[in-house]
Design brief:
Distance between the termini: 52 Å
Radius of gyration: 22 Å
Order of helices and strands: HHHEEHEHHHHHHHHHEHEHHHHHEEEHHH
Low-confidence stretches: 1-9
Length: about 450
């Protein structure tokens, strides 16, 4: 699908062309595999959010958002309700707090934590059907993935200093909410413009250490996107040139307007990028996953040998999760631990696969993990690239020659059964194992509200 011509021969404004593509795809009918993927990812997000309700961060977020926005009629995952904007923020935070939510690897963004909360709150405002909700989630996820593909961030350069989940999530969340609310083309375009006016997402909460804020950054985008759609529905008009105007998002935040090839990525529906969103097997930052995978292979092969040195090869992207090395090796918050390649490598070498049960705050004081982490040496020798680092782990021992382990993409591939097991793990963690089967069947059957009700855990 090429850029559409406008009157006078000029190209259609990008926001308008994107909205036209979304609306055309919805009118034609989404492919069954796209809707199936959307249901699977919705189920995954609901399970993660339920598991996160018992965290201190969840309580803090709910307290603050309730104080700011008051009570309301929109559901909180895990039980309770709040005003629409508060519900969007809380539910997005719940989905991301455990660092377990889905991810598009090339775009390095988490669609589920942004688009589902905005769409869910909008659906309750508009009394929209679950089918409308699922289609909106699928389309907004697709948009968010395309925005990420257009940026394809690496460790340095355009996009590397931003949480693209947050920055681009404002746009996607406004589309998700606007589609559910039934906005016309002009309203959706205005929503994108109003979303852009809130755009933010500086990455210091990840690059720095000692804070817990990295756990909630997608929530700002979910809330802001919903706010933009509601303002648009009420008649406020946003700038049409939000994505390609003189002071547009890409020029201001990425340093240059989109090239024709990047624009085509946003408008070509011959491929569905949302089907490349992956569901995490472990509750830690995705860039740590290749290192967890190679550490698990090393642990299996060499568990009885005394490790003298741990040499971890990284690229520029992964190096961000290794600096400053002393603080990354001895994190003071669980969020920092999950964002640290040295710590997560050491953890996997000692305990095996991370889970909700074994990767808790107590592990930050675990002497066995800290001892191995102290032996980690970082070697920034790998080429940078979008997506996964290539990840090489070399272990040197007291009693013999070193072993090297290399990351394989197959180490992170899962299937629907692995997602179901993860869903049940989340419900067990929340003390709701008895409700897991009903909630899973409802979510996979497209009965999203039934699934949410099944997951209520109010005292």
């Amino acid at each position: 699908m090429s850029t559409l011509p406008a009157d006078g021969g000029s190209a259609v404004v990008l926001s308008t062309a994107i909205v036209q593509g979304l609306m055309a795809a919805r009118k034609t009918g989404l492919p069954s595999f796209v809707r199936d993927a959307a249901r699977l990812h919705i189920a995954d997000a609901l399970g993660i959010a339920v598991a996160a309700r018992s965290t201190d961060l969840a309580s803090q977020v709910i307290t603050a958002q309730t104080l700011m926005s008051g009570s309301g009629c929109c559901s909180l995952i895990g039980g309770g309700s709040a005003a629409p904007l508060a519900a969007a923020f809380v539910n997005a935070a719940l989905i991301h707090i455990l660092d377990y939510d889905d991810i598009h690897d090339v775009g390095r963004l988490h669609p589920g934590a942004v688009v589902l909360p905005a769409a869910l709150a909008a659906a309750e405002i508009a009394d929209a059907s679950d089918d409308v909700l699922i289609d909106a989630v699928a389309l907004a996820t697709e948009l968010m993935c395309r925005l990420g593909m257009a940026c394809a961030p690496q460790g340095e350069g355009p996009g590397s200093e931003w949480f693209l989940t947050q920055l681009l999530g404002y746009i996607a969340a406004s589309a998700a909410a606007g589609l559910v609310l039934g906005l016309a083309q002009s309203g959706l375009v205005s929503g994108i413009g109003l979303a852009y006016m809130q755009a933010a997402g500086g990455k210091q909460a990840g690059f720095g250490t000692g804070s817990t804020a990295r756990a909630v950054y997608p929530a700002f985008a979910a809330q802001g996107g919903l706010q933009a759609a509601l303002l648009s529905r009420a008649g406020v008009t946003g700038p049409e040139g939000a994505l390609d105007g003189a002071a547009s998002l890409f020029r201001i935040y990425m340093g240059a307007q989109l090239q024709p090839r990047q624009r085509e990525i946003l408008l070509d529906y011959s491929k569905w990028h949302s089907c490349d969103v992956n569901i995490k097997p472990w509750p830690s930052c995705r860039l740590s996953h290749p290192y967890v995978a190679v550490a698990l292979a090393a642990r299996h092969a060499c568990s009885s040998r005394r490790i003298e040195r741990v040499r971890v090869a990284v690229n520029a992207s992964a190096a961000r999760l290794c600096r400053p090395l002393p603080q990354r090796c001895r994190p003071v918050t669980l969020q920092d631990a999950k964002y640290s390649i040295p710590f997560m490598t050491a953890f996997a070498l000692v305990y095996g696969a991370p889970s909700l049960e074994n990767l808790s705050r107590e592990v930050m004081g675990d002497e066995r993990v800290l001892e191995i982490a102290a032996r980690v040496e970082i070697e920034e020798t790998l080429p940078d690239n979008p997506g996964h680092p290539l990840a090489v782990l070399t272990l040197e021992y007291e009693d013999g020659p070193a072993d090297s382990f290399h990351f394989s993409q197959d180490d992170l591939r899962g299937d629907e059964e692995s997602v179901r097991l993860k869903f049940f793990e989340c419900f067990r963690h929340a003390g709701l194992e008895h409700a897991a089967e009903k909630a899973w069947q409802a979510a996979m059957g497209g009965q999203i509200r039934v699934a949410i009700r099944a997951a209520e855990q109010l005292d």
